[in-house]
Amino acid sequence: MTLELTRTELLRTQQMVDGEWQDAVTGRRFVVTNPATGETIAQVADAAPADARAAVDAAERALPAWRATLPAERAAFLRRWHAAIIEHREDLARLISMEQGKPLAEARGEVNYGASYVAWFADEATRVYGDIIPTQTRGKRMMAVKEPIGIVAAVTPWNFPLAMIARKIAPALAVGCTVVAKPAEDTPLTALALAYLAEDAGLPAGVLNMIAASREQGVSAVAEWLADARVRKITFTGSTPVGKHLARESAGTLKKLSLELGGNAPFIVFDDADLPAAVAGLMAAKFRNGGQTCVCPNRIYVQAGVYERFAGMLTEAVAALKVAPATDDQAQIGPMINARAIEKIARHVDDAVARGAHVTTGGKRLDVLGPNYYAPTVLINADESMALTCEETFGPVAPLFRFETEDEVVQRANDTPFGLAAYFYSENLRRIERMAGALEAGIVGINEGALASEAAPFGGVKESGYGREGSKYGLDDYLAIKYLCQGNLA
C-alpha cells in the first residue's frame, strides 16, 4: 500500500506550535517507517527541548482567552473537529495502517473510536457543574466551583495513534485547558494530521501544540515539560516504568497526573461458561491490534472441567486468523510494531515451551511476509514459572493456565502488581457477583471481551496507574476544585 491520501496536506512532517507549522530549531529530522516492510514513509521534524519550551510558551499565551470562552463555544469547536475526523476517516485510517501496521478495517474502527471521544466531550463541555454547600453559619455562603487546571502535557503510545491522543486532548480542550502534546516516535503522522484537522476546524493558535521527536530527543523534550511549573498536568499512556519516571520527575512542581500504564489482564473461563461466547470474547479481547493493547488478556485461566474442550475451540479459531499486511482486505492480524516487539514475543514463547508449554497453533515468526510478523499462537499447559506470566507479551500469544476452584483462580488472577483489566465468563449469577467484587482491576469484563467505550471510565489500579479517561468522570482530571466562601451576608 502506497500512502495515497485524498487530502494530501494531512501528511504533515513539521511540528505545530502557536498555530504555525515549522521545523525543529535544530533542523533535525527522524525517519518514520512502515512496520510491514521497513520502508521509509516520511522524515519528521525532531523536536528539541527548545521546541518543547516554545510549545509551552504558546500554550501559556493562549490559555487566558481559551479558558474564558463559553462552554458552548468550546463544544461547537469539538463538534466541528469531530465532523472533520469522520469526513477524513479513510485518509486517517491509511495513515494509521502505514505507520502502525494494523489492518485497514481495524484502522477505520480506530478512527471512529477516537472520534467518539471528541463527540462525547463536546457534549460534556457544557456539563461541568459545581455545588452550593448547605449553609453552616448564618450570613455565610459556601460554594465549590470547577476550573480548568491549566496547561496539559499529553504523551501517547504507538498502538492507538489516533484514539489515545484524541481521548486526552478532547477533555482538556472541553474544559478550557490548553495542550502541548507528543505522540510516540513510531507513529507521529496520525497525531500531526489530527492537529491539522483541529486547526482547520477553527481552533485558535496556541491552544493545541503538537511536536514529534525521536526516542532520544523525545526524552529530552518531555523532560522540559516535567521541569516547567507552567505545565500543571501530565497525561500519559504507556509502560509502568516510564509512568513511574514521569511521576518522580514531575514531583518537583507537584503536577497533577493521569497515568494509564501496563496491564497483565487475566481472562477466566469457568466450567459453567458459555464456551462459544467465551472463545468469541477472547478472540476480540486478545487479538485486537495483534495483541498490542494494554487491556488484552495476558493470562487465560480455564477451569479443569472444560480445559481441553476450550483449548480445542480456541486453537481452531486462532489458526483461522489471516495474517497479512494492511494491503490485504482480508487481513485480521498485521505486523508487530518493530523488531523489539517480535524479539520479546519469540522470547516469551521459547521460554514457555522450554518450561513445559505446548504450542497448538502458531509459535513462529512469519518472515516470508516481512520483518515484523509473528503467527497467532495458542499455548497450553502454561504455568507461573514462565516469563509471560509476569511480563506483558504485547503480541498475539494466548497462554492457557488450568485451575480447579474459584478461590484458587481469584488468588492467581490478583497475584500481579498490575490491575488494569480483567475478564471472566460464567453463567452462575452468584459467582458473577462474587467475582466482580473480588478481581483487583479498574475494568472488568463479565461475559464480554470488548470493553472500550467513550461513555465508560477507562483506567487501572495498583501499578496500572490512576486517573480515568472517557465517561462523565473523564473531565475530573483536567479540573481543579475551588472553594468560594462569601461572608457578611446577614
From TrEMBL:
GO MF, one example: succinate-semialdehyde dehydrogenase (NAD+) activity
Active site, renumbered: 260
Domain of life the protein comes from: Bacteria
CDD domains with a match to the protein in the record: ALDH_F5_SSADH_GabD (cd07103)
InterPro entries per record: Ald_DH/histidinol_DH (IPR016161), Ald_DH_C (IPR016163), Ald_DH_CS_CYS (IPR016160), Ald_DH_CS_GLU (IPR029510), Ald_DH_N (IPR016162), Aldehyde_DH_dom (IPR015590), Aldehyde_DH_Superfamily (IPR050740)
Keywords, alphabetical: Oxidoreductase
Residues annotated as domain Aldehyde dehydrogenase: 21-483
Similarity remark: Belongs to the aldehyde dehydrogenase family.
Name of this chain's protein: Succinate-semialdehyde dehydrogenase
Species whose genome carries this gene: Pandoraea communis
Highest classification ranks of the organism: Bacteria, Pseudomonadati, Pseudomonadota, Betaproteobacteria, Burkholderiales
